[in-house]
Design brief:
This protein has 420 residues and is α+β, with helices and mostly antiparallel strands. It folds into two domains: 8-211 and 327-419, 3-Layer(aba) Sandwich (Aminopeptidase); 213-325, Alpha-Beta Plaits (2-Layer Sandwich). The protein has helices at 8-18, 36-51, 95-110, 137-142, 161-167, 197-200, 239-255, 292-312, 332-344, 360-363, 390-409, 415-419; strands spanning 55-58, 64-68, 76-82, 119-124, 184-192, 205-211, 213-222, 226-227, 260-263, 267-270, 276-277, 280-289, 316-325, 328-329, 349-354, 369-374. The strands form three sheets. Strands 1, 2, 3, 4, 5, 6, 14, 15 and 16 form a nine-stranded mixed β-sheet that branches. Strands 7, 9, 10, 12 and 13 form a five-stranded antiparallel β-sheet that branches. Strand 3, helix 3 (95-110) and strand 4 form a beta-alpha-beta unit. Helix 1 (8-18) runs antiparallel to helix 3 (95-110) and helix 9 packs across helix 11. The chain is globular and about 80 Å long. The protein binds (2S)-amino(hydroxy)ethanoic acid (HGY) and manganese (II) ion (2 copies). One manganese (II) ion (MN) is lined by residues 82, 93-94, 127, 191, 358.
């Protein structure tokens, strides 16, 4: 096992970031895209990067970009993650990747490391998509992908992405300025595992080989508002009853096979009166699978379950795809460097597939990418109970630093080779 002392400044950065957007009760953290809390955390990161001697700023898509320039120039090694959160999220999801990136830079500077290629630390905006359903917004803009179709998405208050951007002083017409992928040679991210594998195997480090694909669906069921006291069941077209049947059916869909995970995380009932038979019900369906074919199969199955539940209650139904991220393979040139970094500090490591989605799956569409995982206590995440020990955080930061050194010294797969 690795013998690395807990890193005081890493813990300080985590604590100070966790205080930004902390919920008034419950111990969770809420930092949505384009919110004051996320902009405060982003500005705080700019200051921390500048204090380490990096050029730092916030780009046109709200990404924080810190650059450690190299005398020789060349395509940058980007170390990244995110500072936005799910509602009442934990203090490690995303933020640990950023704090460990800061710690790795401190460690490298203290050892006299001079990068042969530029080293960037990036906090991507809106990785979670929690407010507008626009997951990976920042990393997609950074990668030069067109995110303008997302500008009209609305949050629960009816505010559009474009309006939220403008309210914070960002011009949606300048989003294209965030494109930076042409200057990037490889991507590396440290993240909590958010699952139970590493802890159950007594490992300190996870070498991610692939990231499961993500399919996001919005389901709308349409019935008819009616009086709760006077309307016989036979005359009802109850949208919530239809949704309940559909949601129970979706659980059955994935119950006997762990290769596909289905989650209904949000539901909205209209008009929402206690004495009104629901006229409309909207709910989200989040599907994960390591194989693209399983995602397609799951989409067909979800549509069939919804159609059957709607027919049973004589409802109209609509199923819209709002997110589709293909499974992503990590690049061997990066995973080899991570495994070498773990060996260098005698850390017990294991290879694994990430069940959670990450910005790395966007970057991996364009450049060689890899991820370093550290254990999550009890496999808990997207919860105030999320926890990773100080020791595991310190080992992760050390392995991140070693991996950066390894990648800096080795010829990376060129983007042209990678895309070929
Ligand atoms: O949804 C996910 O897997 C990630 O936390 N954004
Ligand atoms: Mn998350
Ligand atoms: Mn995350």
């Amino acid at each position: 096992m690795a013998r690395i002392a807990p890193a005081g400044l890493l813990a300080r950065d985590l604590d100070e970031l966790a205080a930004i957007g902390a919920d008034a009760t419950g111990g969770g953290i809420t930092r949505f895209a384009w919110s004051d809390a996320l902009l405060d955390a982003s500005r705080s990161l700019v200051e921390r990067l500048a204090a380490l001697g990096l050029e730092a700023g916030i780009d046109a898509a709200g990404n924080v970009v810190g650059r450690w320039c190299a005398p020789g120039g060349g395509k940058a090694l980007v170390v990244g993650s995110h500072l936005d959160t799910v509602p009442s999220g934990g203090r490690y999801d995303g933020a640990l990747g950023i704090a460990a990136g800061l710690e790795a830079i401190r460690l490298l500077r203290a050892r006299g490391f001079v990068p042969r290629r530029p080293l960037w630390l990036v906090a991507f905006n809106d990785e979670e998509g929690a407010r507008f359903g626009t997951a990976m917004f920042g990393s997609r803009a950074f990668a030069g992908e067109d995110v303008t179709p997302l500008l009209e998405r609305r949050d629960r208050d009816g505010t559009t992405v474009a309006e939220a951007m403008a309210a914070q002083g960002f011009d949606p017409r300048r989003l294209g300025d965030a494109r930076a992928i042409d200057d990037v040679g490889a991507y590396l991210e440290l993240h909590i595992e958010q699952g139970p594998v590493l802890e159950s195997r007594g490992c300190e480090i996870g070498v991610v080989t692939a990231i499961a694909g993500v399919l996001g669906l919005d389901v709308t069921l349409g019935g008819e508002a009616a009086h709760a006291g006077t309307t016989p069941v036979a005359l009802r077209r109850d949208a919530l009853v239809g949704a309940a049947r559909a949601i129970a059916g979706l659980r059955e869909l994935a119950a006997d096979r762990d290769a596909v995970r289905v989650t209904v995380g949000t539901i909205e009932v209209l008009p929402g009166g206690f004495n009104v038979v629901p006229a409309e019900c909207r709910f989200s369906v989040d599907v994960r699978a390591a194989e693209a074919s399983l995602l397609d199969e799951a989409e067909r199955a979800v549509r069939a379950v919804v159609a059957e539940a709607a027919a049973g209650e004589r409802l109209e139904s609509d199923v819209a795809v709002v997110r589709r991220l293909a499974p992503a393979a990590m690049d061997p040139s990066v995973t080899r460097a991570i495994a070498a970094g773990a060996r260098a500090v005698d850390a017990r490591s294991a290879e694994l597939v990430s069940g959670a989605g990450h910005d790395a799956m966007v970057l991996a569409r364009h450049v060689p990418a890899g991820m370093v995982f550290v254990p999550s206590r009890g496999g808990v995440s997207h919860s105030p109970r999320e926890h990773t020990s100080e020791e595991h955080c310190a080992v992760g930061a050390e392995v991140l630093a070693r991996t950066v050194e390894g990648l800096d010294a080795s010829p990376l797969t060129t983007t042209e080779e990678y895309r070929a």
